[in-house]
Every structure is written in structure tokens, then in C-alpha cells.
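Box 3.1. Reading complex inputs
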Amino acid sequence: MINYPDILHNIQLEINKVSERGQVARYIPELSKIDPHKFGMHIIDANRNEFSVGDSEEAFSIQSISKVLSLSQAIGLIGEELWTRVDVEPSGDPFNHLSLLEQENGIPRNPLINAGAIVVADILVSKLKNPKEDFLTYIQDISGDKSINFDADVAASEKETGFRNYAAANLLKSYGNLHNDVDTVLDFYFHQCSLALNCKQLTKLFFVFMNRGKCLQNNTYLTTSQVKRINALMLTCGFYDEAGEFAFEVGLPGKSGVGGGIVALLPNNYCVATWSPGLNKKGNSKLGMLALEMLTTATKQSIF
Amino acid sequence: MINYPDILHNIQLEINKVSERGQVARYIPELSKIDPHKFGMHIIDANRNEFSVGDSEEAFSIQSISKVLSLSQAIGLIGEELWTRVDVEPSGDPFNHLSLLEQENGIPRNPLINAGAIVVADILVSKLKNPKEDFLTYIQDISGDKSINFDADVAASEKETGFRNYAAANLLKSYGNLHNDVDTVLDFYFHQCSLALNCKQLTKLFFVFMNRGKCLQNNTYLTTSQVKRINALMLTCGFYDEAGEFAFEVGLPGKSGVGGGIVALLPNNYCVATWSPGLNKKGNSKLGMLALEMLTTATKQSIF
Amino acid sequence: MINYPDILHNIQLEINKVSERGQVARYIPELSKIDPHKFGMHIIDANRNEFSVGDSEEAFSIQSISKVLSLSQAIGLIGEELWTRVDVEPSGDPFNHLSLLEQENGIPRNPLINAGAIVVADILVSKLKNPKEDFLTYIQDISGDKSINFDADVAASEKETGFRNYAAANLLKSYGNLHNDVDTVLDFYFHQCSLALNCKQLTKLFFVFMNRGKCLQNNTYLTTSQVKRINALMLTCGFYDEAGEFAFEVGLPGKSGVGGGIVALLPNNYCVATWSPGLNKKGNSKLGMLALEMLTTATKQSIF
Amino acid sequence: MINYPDILHNIQLEINKVSERGQVARYIPELSKIDPHKFGMHIIDANRNEFSVGDSEEAFSIQSISKVLSLSQAIGLIGEELWTRVDVEPSGDPFNHLSLLEQENGIPRNPLINAGAIVVADILVSKLKNPKEDFLTYIQDISGDKSINFDADVAASEKETGFRNYAAANLLKSYGNLHNDVDTVLDFYFHQCSLALNCKQLTKLFFVFMNRGKCLQNNTYLTTSQVKRINALMLTCGFYDEAGEFAFEVGLPGKSGVGGGIVALLPNNYCVATWSPGLNKKGNSKLGMLALEMLTTATKQSIF
């Protein structure tokens, strides 16, 4: 039996000792205000036991973590057709997402880089009656938590400064891979990224990917095969150009966001979320990565 | 003595024989309507003698040719400071202008690729009181022709479909290399590109670069050193990724536009403009390139 | 209980129906002689039960599959130090392994692309007394099969035509990331790639990676953590620029070779090898990929 | 009338004041031994008047400057056919010559980058009876100086450390764009680059490119059109990724070498050579560039 409380306790002790906590994201002004000393971690296992430590009930901006959820909803709506508009390969290079887009005629490398997530957002804008509301309802339903909401300030902050996303969306448009207009799609995308959740809520949300497509309330959202694919994408593409490193050190499918959150899961076993706002050079939470390494080292479990 | 009338006559005979005239630009809807059989050519020499053949007095959209003029006006306004925001090297690669921008931290390779010309447009928007009007006046003054004007339909057409330019401008903005807002700068840029001139007018405009900075009316616009630099840029960067080929085959500084126009010059000797709307695969006028090759072969003169 | 015999039988029936079998590798002359209609598949489970179908006992050139084994031996010899000379990220781009090497100062992206495997070969050449013999012994010991050997003709054939590997090795040397001389390292590398095994032997060899570091004979070769890392690398980097696709469709760590072999494994469950010489455009066995997809679809098991 | 003696005198005064002289090339061990304080400059005009200053009669390794001469000899031997194996466009990027080669299927961007010059060397090896001897004779004949010779120590030094050139040659070979074997071609290439000349000899050698194809002894080596093309290539590609800068600041066709030499010319006017061993970050002679800028500023002459 794995003793999660002890493991979490030890992780927190180690985390507290670390003085170099990384850099809080600055490019979205609202995010730069967060206290870098925050740290939370929450685990839910397959039997719905829960364990937590630190600031696990304080909400933060999930940012790129939301890409897994928009992908999940889009797959539910249009299925395999999605893969005609976005590929499933790791992007490899740190700096040239837009250049890859140019080289590959407007087909983003995968749905977890910004360009790919913008295409997914475009699909949701096309298919949902009230895109923002319907996406929010989807999140609330899967997690069973009606209190989850967008953070309007964060969305507005990103709208004013998200020039790189405007560049990506316009480039996609030039290749015919954006069907709605740029402003509408990015308004949806910035709201999606602004979702505010705490670690506990995140694990309840991602329970569905750990549990073969069934959510906490036992409703089925995805087929086994769809879950396999989403988890495979998280493993190969979930951590920007540090995906290989995360697979290598941690060995779990997961997704990070520049808000400092990370969620990861061991299929059929547990789902875990961490939050620490300081980022490493690759844009992933420095202490979150460390905490998850300690977790899989302590449990001696990984998908490999 | 060079017999320009005979040379032009022979060039037209040869051009008429060519059946494969290239592809009229399609990405700007207004431009796709032009008759591909148009051909005009006009020469003005250092003594202001003029020679022409074909449709040399029919106006067309000069598009990228305008980049030399906005550069010229910007150099006049801020001088060497301009080179802190844009480099002077050929771009080399055909497809990855945006990727180069990412690799080089938002400093465009040179002022004659789109990204570079957008930075130059940004400078003019910052420095001119009434940017569009003042730029138009500059053009009218240098050429001594008050009838030159923007083509509002072409500008509007490009505004609706210029997603790649919106991508470039937003990417520049993300690097802090665009000081005004994207829409304002691109409105100026699309107008600048929409300038409608005929071959005759183009040679009168570019006379200033052939004549060491003095325009047809003998007013001085640029120093000898500034003219040297602008001509050097035309030679190394004036024909997209076919600049080497043009230098190699023709051997004159020049600039092409997707409207099918090309202007070129032999310093202190003559200035020449051609117009044929069909483009080769690299985006330069197919028959214009051929006509200029025939011209320098017949005259046995080039800068080399 | 999973009925492997039935599953294998059904896979062979499906495979037999496929007329388009891909292209046998041509760049190594010896390999181009292989009959494209060969097909074999072998499974060994955690209880050492074995199941097979087709040409599963006919030896073929394992080529890049050998990279996992040289990596494994090198990790055993120098441990974590290896990661100072080679990274662990997917390479992303299909075409530009050498360009990545230039951009990243001679540190190959991962040990499963050619440049990375050449660095690993260099390590073995430095550390082993009789590199080729000692590596062969290592293979024979892990698999418990003394009959395994190099194919001298294949090694010689690659030596004569492996200009791209000579290019990579010289580039590594120019960055100081090759300590022995180019010819010595490549002689080792070409021999390593020439190893001739059949599907049955391959599964016995890779049993060690499925079985947490213990080989069929119950000797321990690697720690759990080392196995996790090697399996993670196979998943993220084992199929050239189709690694994402393989993770997405099959969901197992694995490695392919241009000889048409693929080996894959579900940790603690089974190890499987397929052989079909025809390759798809990305250089992976066309029917091998298909057979493994059918296997994980039928068993409903994957690491995700 | 231009007063060359005064101009050269003033340039030397300025050069003497500069304390930061750049870095002597280190990657060829023999070159790293050169005294960084050397400076020489020599001019020959169209009337064969000569002017010099400093160490203008001390020989140095001309390195890449030799690429213009091998190109010239190859054009004389096979004419336009050469352009099927090498392109005429600037390479643009500083770091990725090999990656460009991969992207462009083994056709080097131009004959003045290493990969292109290696293809030209391959052509000479194929076409000349005694390649090294015949090339040397060609150099001696054009310059009218039988004392010019290879520097065997420099050639040997480069052979031992030229791994990047071995990489390029092998990559060319993998694309079928090298017809002879790698070692033979590189032996020729390293000798060609090791040619030892002083500034005075260099100007006599390049007189042929300034004088429309006729050498100092009035023998015709090239047609006017061939000279135009070679000069155009020097202008657009002669200074690595600083070609644009050189055209922009100096405005003359020219070629630099890592031995610290630069040769440049104003067609029909003069040919000039400089030597200062310290290089700038782009690999061009720091003070040589400065001296040539001062020369064209003082003479107010350039091709533009």
C-alpha cells in the first residue's frame, strides 16, 4: 500500500527547503502579481480517496492545462475529423512554433501547442451554440463543481498583450485553417485559458482521463481509445520542449500551464495536481516538476 | 552610343513570342483581375531622355516596390537610427520570414521583406503628422507628378485578406518592435502598397536613386552615402529569394512587386521600369525579369 | 484472459489482405534484396509464455533497434554522465537532424536518432576493451542466446554507403562530442546496426525492459529507474518523426529499424516483435505498425 | 583625380589607433600563430599604377578567397553546366550551412560557402589532369607570378582538424553531388585554401575580375558575362552572413578569408587587397572591413 499522506508530507518538507523557486510568468500582467511562495498538491486515487498538502484549495489560472479539456470536448463533438486540422507529433523546437506552422502549411504540430489549441478553439466556436458558456458547463459537469468559472481580469489582460497568439491565429487564417474570425476565436481562447481552479478541482476534472473516460460521477465522456490518445498526447507534447524530460524523469502523462499548475495521472491509479507559480526556463513550474519527480520516485510507479 | 529605341523594340518582339507568361498574383483579389498580356517598359537616362514601349503609361499596383520609398522617407526622417530596428542582410530562405523573425528576436532581416517594411511603416506612422497624406506628398514631390494616388480598392482588398501581414505585425509587436497599434500601421502599409503608377512614373520616381540623391527637379533628398545603401539593399534583397539570381543575370539594383512591376537602375546612367503581371514561382514578374536581362545583355552594361 | 493465439491469427489474416506493403529500404544495398512479403510476429508474456505467427524465426537486420541496446549498455557503464553528451527530447523534424546538431552545439537531441546513437557508440568504444566483441557478448547474455551475431555483409554495405553517418560523426567531432576517431566509431556503429535477429530473439532481448531490468535468466541489468528512462525514450523518440503517431495509435514504448523490425512492450505484461520489410514514408515498417495497432486494439491494453 | 597615396596613408593612421583588433582564427592551428598586429593594403588601378602601405608584401593564407579562383577556373572548364550543381543565392543564415544543404537536397546555396566550394573542387578534380598542379599553374598564370605556392603546413593542419568540411563533403556525397571520393576532393580543397599570397599578389590576381576578364598580361580568361556573374556572386555572397553589411557599407564586390585577407574591386577602376589577421564575430577581418569602408568613403566611389 502506498502511504500518500506521508509522501505528500515529505514532499512539502523538501519543497520548503528550496530557495530558488523560478520566475513567475510575466508576459500576462495579471499573472505576474502572484506570490511565488504558494505551493499546493492534491491527489485523488481510483477509489476516490483524496490527499492534499499546502495551498491545494487556492484557485489559480490554469492557462495551457485548459487545452486538454478543449481538445476533449472537440473530440467528443467531431471525433477523428479533428486530426485533419492538427497533427499529433511533438514540436521539438523551443522557439519556432510559428516557423513550423509555415513549414507545415498551417497544420499545427499538435493540439497542445498554442497554434494547435487555437485550431481546437476554432472548432468549438463553430460547433457550440454559446461557445464560452457551453465550454464552462462542460468543465463544471465533468468535475461536478458548478463553482468553477473564468477569471475575466486574466482574460482581459491576455487579450491586451497576447500579440503572439494574434500572430499565430492570423497565420492559421492565411492557410485557411481558421474558419471563424480571429477576434472571436481568440476571445474564446483567452477565456478558456483564464479558467481559475485549485489543485483539488483539477484532479476531479482530470479524473476522467485517469478513469478510462468516466468522470467522478460515473458518466462516460470519452471512449477508451480516445482517452488513450489524449493521454499519449499529454505524454509526448504536454510540457512544451521539456516533454521528453518529463516523461524521462516523472513518467506520467500530464499538462502544465504558465500559471504554475501541473496535472498528471497514472491510468487506473491516481490523478495528481500541483501548483507553484515560479517557472523554469522552459516555462514549466519548477517546484511542480520536482514534486512530481519525488512522487513517482517514492511510489516507484510510472507508466513505464 | 546605346540605341535604346532599337533595344526596346527588339525586347518587345521577343516578349511577344513568349506564350508562358507566368501566373497573375491571386492572393490579393483585386490584383487577380489584371490582363496577363499587358507589357510595358520605360527608360529615362541621366540626360532625361526617355524611351518607351508597350503599355508603359497604364498604371498598376506597385506593391512591394513602395518599400524602397517608405525606406527612403524614413531614412530622411531618422537616419542611421533606423538600423537598430531592422537589419541589412538578405533573408535567404523563401518560406520562413516569420521564423527568422522568431530566431532573431523580432529584428527583421532587411527593410525590403514584409516584416521589415512593416517596421519602416511603423516609423513613418510615428514621425509623420498625417502619415498617408504626407507619404503620398513625398512620392508626388520626388516624381514631380501630383496625379499619383493610392488605389482604395486594392488597399481594402489587401486589408481583408492580408492575414500573413497581420501575423507579422503582431509578432513584431510581441517583440516590442512595433510602437503603434497593429491596425494603424497596417492601414498605412496597405495604402502604401496600393500606390498606382505606370512605368513612366516609376522611372521618374526612382530617378533620385540613380542620380545620387537628386530628383528629376534637382532637389536633393538623400546623401550619396544614403543612396549607396538603398541601392545596395535593392541589389542584395530586392527580389525575395531570387535576389542572387537577379544580381547574377541582370546585374542592376532593382525592386519588384507582385503587381508585376520591376524598377531597376544603373547609377549615373539610366533608370528603367517594366510591367508584366504574370509572376514566376518566386513572385517576380516573369517577363519583366527577361526584359531586363535582354536590356543589360544588349547594352553590355551592369554595375559589375 | 487475453487469447494471444487468436489475436495473432486474426492479425495475420488481416495482414495477408493488404496489397500495399510499403517500400523495402534501399539506401543500404544489402537490405534492398529482402522479400517484401515476409511477415513475422512473436509475443512473450511476463510468465514466459510465447506465441508466434508467420516468419517469426527468420533473422533480419535489426538496424536502429540496436540503439536501445547500446544505450542500455552505456548507461550501465557510465550512468547519468551520459546525459551530458546527449539530450532526451524528441527531435520533431524529419529532415534536419544535422541542422539540429548545428543549432544545439553538437549535443544530439536524443540517443535514438543517428547522431545520438553515434555518441553512445563512441562511449562504448571508449569504455569497452574489445568493443564489438563485448557488445555482442552483452546481447547474447541478456537474450540468453549465444547464436546471435553481426552480419558482416550488411556492416560492409553500410560502411560503403553511409555518407550521412560519416557527415554526422564528423560534425560531432567538430563540436568535440566524439572522443575516438570517426572511422573506429562508425565501424562499431555499422556492426551494431547489422545485428541479425528474428522476432523471437528480439522479444527475449527486450524482455529486460518489460521486466523492470531483469532479463529472462533473472539477472539484473538495469535499475527500475533506468528502465523507466529507457522506456520513456522509446515512447517519445523511438519512431523518428512518427513517435507521436505511434504513442497515439499503439500506446506502447517501442523501437523500429529500417530492416522492417519493430519491438514494443507493455511493462510487466508482455514484449512483442514484428517484422515486415516494407517501410512507410517515415521509415517505419508499414505492416508492423498496423499489426501492433491491431494488437493493442484487440487487447484493449496500453500504457495509457 | 583620386589621391591614393594620401588615402592609404590616412587609413593606416586610423588603423594604428584601433586597439581592439579582433580574434585571430583558431580553428586551423597553423593560422592561430599569426601576429594580430600585421596590417597591409595594396591597390592597383586600371592603368596598372600601384599603391601600398604596411605589410603589403608579406604572404598570408588566403583561405576562402581561393574559392573565387576555383570557381573561375571551373566556369572556364564547364561553363553554365556548373549551375546545375550549385545555386547562386545568398545563404542568409550564419549557422546552418549543413541544414540548408539538407533542406535543399544537396545543392549548396552558392559557390562561395564551403559546401559550394567543395562541389567546385570536385569539378576541378574531375576535369583537371593534375588537379593541384594545374590549379596552381592557373593562379600563377593569371597573376603573372610563378612564385605563388601552396603552404603545405597549413594544408596539413586543416586536414587534421577540418571535421566540418568532412561533414559537408560526406553530406554532399550522400546526395550524389560529389563525384570523386571525399578524401581526394578535400585534399585538393585544403591545398587550394592554403595558397599563400601577399596583398600585392592578390590584387594582380583579381585584376582579371576588375578588367572584364583580361588579366594583367592582357590574356583573356573570362567573358564579360562570366565576370559579371562572378562579381555579382562576390557582392551577394562574398562575406558569409555579413555580405549585406559589406555591400551596404563598402559597396564593392569582394571576398574575405579567415586568414584575415580581403580583396575587393571597382569594375574598370581598381582592385584592392587588405590584410589584418584579427576577425570579427562573423569571421571577416575586422580592420580590413574598416579600411575598405574608409577607402570608399574617401574616394566617394562604389558600384552603387
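In summary: Chain A touches chain C through 37 residues (CB under 8 Å).
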